[in-house]
Amino acid sequence: AISCGNIENGSVKPRFFFQRRKRTFECNAGYIAENDNNSIECTSSGWSPVPRCIPIQCGRIENGKIVDKVEEKTTFQCNHGYKSENGINETTCTSEGWSPVPICIGTGEKCGRPPTIKNGDITTLSLKEYVFGSSVEYKCQHYYIIQGERKSYCYNGNWTKPPVCLEPCVITQEDMRSHNIDLKWASAQKLYVSHGAFVEFKCRSSLSPNSSNNHRVQCNAGQIPYPQCT
Question: How far apart are CA 179 and CA 207, in angstroms?
Fold first, then answer.
């Protein structure tokens, strides 16, 4: 009788047996035979083919999460606004997938006041409570640019992500004086430039730019890269 050694994350019985006799190995709980092949032979050079037990992957639980795992049993919890379809919060990861399949369904809960956004507001009067499926629309203050979905929806007690208001750039005479520049196409004491918009500068009389970079620059969420002239 010969022995080919242990099988990682699995076992075969008995440990000692005659060479070239086909055996069947079993994987431990939570593992499965690679390629669904659990038939092997013990040869003079070891197991043939090499037995491999790989972890069973059952994937994520939609609208829920795993909170505990004890041996084969997995306990899951549905996200806020959702509940287990059958009232059971235990499942097992098998070679065929989750058993039983964990399903988290929406409870249809109402929502409280919608989320506020910086430099913006909703276009209608805010209520204390909203029914499932309701929506509110946002708008930004003057010169601010809205980014994202304009509407937020009440879904199972939660509001979907609201938009953000991107800040404009404020160009003042003081800022331009410190960089020795002027506006190329306009004359103003203060200029508001929306996010994403371009503005072009020129050097003040008898001055030259510090580099060959273009004096046409873009406003990015309240920040503008001023060119410098000396």
Answer: 11
